[in-house]
Amino acid sequence: MKLLKKGILLCGMMILVNFALFAQDQNVWKNLSEVTYTISEDEYGELYVPVFSENITKMEGKVVEADGYIIPFDGMFKPDHIILSSLPLAECFFCGSGGPETVMEVDMASPIKYTSKRVRVRGTLTLNKKDPDKLMYILTNGTLVE
């Protein structure tokens, strides 16, 4: 009987975790678009500093899933550090009309192979509003989701 209760409890927890991931997955790019900017200055001139919405702030430090396209880094593919765009290459932030909220850096837990197909990654979300050399959304410990 005790084993049955543990099994039921474990199944319930798994359903809740999957539901939470599903809910985030459906809205992750939509939620990440809820960002505005303030203008600041540094030694190089004007700097747009992101102001994250309450929804985005709540996601920081949590495991999220995002799907998108791998964008080559400086024209190269780095198998353990990728740029993920919600839009295909021709429309992404760097080449097309997408904004900075449509891309994220992903530090992969293990190297992956490049593909031009849409992929899904899972990782812990970090918000960056201080380092202008990095993107404002960073996933750490990223893994490909089958």
Write a short abstract of this structure.
With 146 residues, the protein is an alpha+beta fold. The protein is 25% helix and 36% strand. It comes from Algoriphagus halophytocola.
Bin the strand percentage.
35-45%
- Distance between termini? 35 Å
Mean pLDDT: 83
What's the alpha carbon Rg, rounded to whole Å? 18 Å
**Would you identify the regions where 5 or more consecutive residues have pLDDT less than 50?**
10-23
User: Order of helices and strands, N to C?
Assistant: HEEHEEEEE
Helix/strand/pairing class, anyone? alpha+beta
How much helicity do the residues have? 25-40%
Biggest β-sheet strands, sense, barrel: 5 strands, mixed, barrel
In which order are the strands of the major sheet placed?
3-4-5-7-6
Can you describe this structure?
Keywords: Signal. This is DUF3299 domain-containing protein. Residues 1-23 form the signal peptide. With 146 residues, the chain is α+β, with helices and mostly antiparallel strands. Helices cover 25% and strands 36% of the residues. The chain has two helices and seven strands; from the N terminus they run αββαβββββ. It has helices at residues 2-32, 54-59, and strands spanning 35-42, 45-52, 63-71, 81-85, 103-108, 119-127, 137-144. Strands 3-4-5-7-6 form a five-stranded mixed barrel. The N and C termini lie far apart (35 Å).
